[in-house]
Amino acid sequence: MADLQALRADIEGIRIEDNEKIVQQKSRDFYWYSPVLKERLEAVTGDLVVSPKTEAELIRVLKACYRHGVPVTPRGTGTGNYGQAMPLSGGVVLSLADMNEIREIAPGRAVVGPGVICSDLDKAARFESGQEMRMHPSTAHTATVGGFIAGGSGGVGSTRWGGLRDFGNVIRLRVVTMEEEPRALELTGEDLHKVTHAYGTNGIITEVELPLTAAYDWVDVIVAFDDFMEAATYANALGRQDGILLKLNTVVAAPAPFDYFKRHQKFLKEGENTVICMVAPQSLDAFLAFTRREGGRIAFNRSELAEEDLRGLPVAYELAWNHTTLRGLRVDPAITYLQVLYPFPDQLALVSKLHEMFEGEVIDHLEFVRFDGDITCFGLPMVRYSTEERLDEIIETFNREGAPIFNPHRYTLEEGGMKQTDEIQLAFKREADPRGLLNPGKMIAWENPDYDFDSGAVWLFKGLQKAG
Amino acid sequence: MADLQALRADIEGIRIEDNEKIVQQKSRDFYWYSPVLKERLEAVTGDLVVSPKTEAELIRVLKACYRHGVPVTPRGTGTGNYGQAMPLSGGVVLSLADMNEIREIAPGRAVVGPGVICSDLDKAARFESGQEMRMHPSTAHTATVGGFIAGGSGGVGSTRWGGLRDFGNVIRLRVVTMEEEPRALELTGEDLHKVTHAYGTNGIITEVELPLTAAYDWVDVIVAFDDFMEAATYANALGRQDGILLKLNTVVAAPAPFDYFKRHQKFLKEGENTVICMVAPQSLDAFLAFTRREGGRIAFNRSELAEEDLRGLPVAYELAWNHTTLRGLRVDPAITYLQVLYPFPDQLALVSKLHEMFEGEVIDHLEFVRFDGDITCFGLPMVRYSTEERLDEIIETFNREGAPIFNPHRYTLEEGGMKQTDEIQLAFKREADPRGLLNPGKMIAWENPDYDFDSGAVWLFKGLQKAG
Hints:
The structure is a homodimer.
Chain A: H1 2-10, E1 15-17, H2 20-25, H3 35-41, E2 48-51, H4 55-68, E3 72-75, E4 92-95, E5 102-106, E6 109-112, H5 118-129, E7 131-133, H6 145-151, H7 158-161, E8 172-176, E9 184-187, E10 204-214, E11 219-225, H8 228-239, E12 246-252, H9 256-260, E13 273-279, H10 284-294, E14 297-301, H11 307-310, H12 322-331, E15 335-337, E16 340-342, H13 347-357, E17 362-363, E18 365-371, E19 374-379, E20 382-384, H14 388-401, H15 413-416, H16 423-432, H17 444-447, H18 464-467
Parallel strand pairs in A: 2-4, 3-4
Antiparallel strand pairs in A: 1-2, 5-6, 6-10, 7-10, 8-9, 8-10, 11-13, 11-14, 12-13, 12-18, 15-20, 16-19, 17-20, 18-19
């Protein structure tokens, strides 16, 4: 490809990787969680991986790609689950992992490059100021901050702070456009929504200002219940305890805890349902009193175990969010998963109904979170996969019952269901990426001029038109 | 009184005050907020004020009082509003203000004597560790920590953390009993409820362990609206923004802001309704974007004003909670107030209905808080007082409409309506205060053996029997 030769010449001095195997590897994420995407995205690969170290280098890359009409798909470390950073049209995979400077840590906030690993930021913030990120994915040890914001929605900490969609959970993003002369824009307030969870289709994040919160030596606790709905009811009530400071409140239904959490197996009984929590030390006493009152069995309390008992045990959040499915897949590669919202105030009734409807086929996994001011839960149920048709049937049933699915078996923004596109966002893309070179194929509204914005669906990241 | 002579001899060396004027002054609180209590409690006074400096001294005082049958009414600095610490039967007013040691400040928690002034603890915690109390009364500069726990229910910070009634907002209380040989008990978990908001009827607090949270340079902001329900709707929606960190979210209806907040008057317009907020600096940008979207006028933003403009201005929380009424009383001594809960999820409809019913007679004041996991509001409406009968009529109307009143015109635990007594608490009092000498006359269940515990009322501090 002539374009690529010329491109390479234009960006000389900037780190490039063209080893086919490595490029393919860096063109992938955890899309194989989905048997549907596994089939559809298997052949996807970029042509080159380019890794700028500074915004100036990045701008050189974008200018060159623009000139030569080469698609650019930005990427952190590829911990997404549905092809967010997979280059459907080939071209350049733009790794931002080397733009990993921690520029400022101040009371309540940090300024970082997009490539900083979440746990590295947490480590630095804790060391310098006793602080940490409000929320991070369960892949904190590998995921980048920029990738989390561009491809994620929330995670460990959302039980306290809500999601990335919420005002205040991202303070400022610096974004470079894909134009003949790329511009650097500073986005704040509502404008952040142009870029959050947009998979890099609207510009490349070069700096992130995000809020920090007090770091504590969170205590991992697992509470066990014989009955699944008892566990869910407990977790729901626990989430409503305003004075008990939690970072995680996860329900995993039997048989997953005993069968999939191998390293914790010795603490668990077969057939138990678990609630996995991270509790602030100053809240532990109240947490235990509350749990006693509600009749939960304390199966695991990290603060009471000796160093040697803890050796090799993953931290609690590595049993939760997307790690639950990961642990399941290691034991049973035939499972997959869904993403669902159980809307307040009917969350427990919905959970119970759907749990019964799919007993044996769906293994429930709930994440209790704050959502628009209420305590409710997302589900990341594990599904014993048979066919795509059956999976769609299950999805339809959840939707019909009032528990909307954010389909992790689709790679477009709109079909994934988390990101609502609208005229304002489309207008922003026209401005920021006039040639449509940023992560092509991910935004239906761009590809299809007749796309109907008003599907009536539930969106996590709402369009700007309604909000504005 | 012979008893007192003997008592004085027994506690020689411990600080005593017997000047009649000073004893009377130290026998009072802000009971005069209520014209009803003003009349009823005017004559109340103790015989002596005793101020132990240590738990050992305190135990000597209690032993002596027990021996001589002298009532003991514990007190911090007397910032209560309904006679919590007024000695109905005379005797010893036990000032705990000198037991004001700050014993430990650690990540997430502090251990202090009961007499520490809230703002002194905050100052020390901020200086040592960048922390502060989760919540404090609007009288933080004069109120003691022990008095807050024994006589208060929540305050500035409850918008984030709920109330003192909630698991986790007090960690541990050390309490000395009123027996022949006083014992020191360490209470945690549910047992804390035996002592919180019990006016010292169940034992004397000698040490408090309480949670701390990250301190920020909170930004005082006042948002103005022409319409009262627009202000209330905004504050409710603001409270539901999970990513915007607030410490205060107070609605004050016209004409109070312009008429009563004299020092802020230059920032306000006559007839405006205000929402008074304390916003974490890292959330200010999001707060302003949200406020713009909701159409509020930023009347006051401390972060944008010069030092000289701020001179003499009280901090935001000194316009809120019980300070709102205080400022009203300074302008119009004929007003009084009520305390009301607007239960979720109907809070806005209830507020609107009752606002219209009493327009001109009741000036609304709402405090948006977390309450059992929901965002809702308390009211501390100011009332243009005419007669006790009319006040009772207003109270009845609120109760009938589903907005329960915690009557601040009553001095007993039960009639005030915040504290539910029950057999377990009564049994604890029998054990901890067998002669009934602690703050006599405040617990109906103790005075009246036929007291019916099951009134069906709403209680902030629930009995232990149901919960257990």
